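Everyone, carefully examine this protein record:
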Amino acid sequence: MEKLLKIIQDTYDISQIESLEQNDPMFKALKDLYLHLSNKQIFIPLVLSNSLICYQLSSKWEDYWQEFSLEAGKVPFKQTSDIHEFFLDFLPRSTGNKRLFATKIKRLLRAENFLPQVFSKQMMYYRDMSLLRDDLSTSMKQSKNAKTIVFTVKMFGYAARIHFGEFISFPSEIPIPIDSRLERIYRELNSDPNQTIESFYAQISDQLGLAPLHLDVILWLDSDLLIQQAQEI
């Protein structure tokens, strides 16, 4: 962990992290979607909905988000209720998100009552993403730290940054969404058998003074390089 901390401290600052996030393939996919949507106000609820069903994918995450953005950009959305109809049509023919169709449609139905609230409180939620996390958790009946909940907050933050043209940092209390790349870093670089993967990343974030969701982009995009550099020190 100490080696990983040193590499991150020596390599990245918040402005570089903001630039990294804007080069995240998922951020680029959202930016492309925003450019093609005729109704910009539907953008954030649409991204939030897709984030909530972004699991058990059959392609890489970045490939699926590109597919989603291309398809959603063709649809003339008028209101939030159109989002559900889009996914009913899109998911069965999706290359990257065709598994667990019935389960994901149920999740979208559960989220449907929350979407008008997101629609009307977009800036409020952007300024207080912890409140968004809490309200999402209640609406979806999931833990505040569930992977899909914290990932949805991350993608909401990306979408709101694009929509409002303003950078607001992620809250420090929202944990990092654990995926296979982060699991690999933990296996390769954690030397304490008693430390959980959650506490491993929480400790790194705390020592860096960097919100876990901002740390996520460094680890997600540069995982192979970071492991190699840490092992060479």
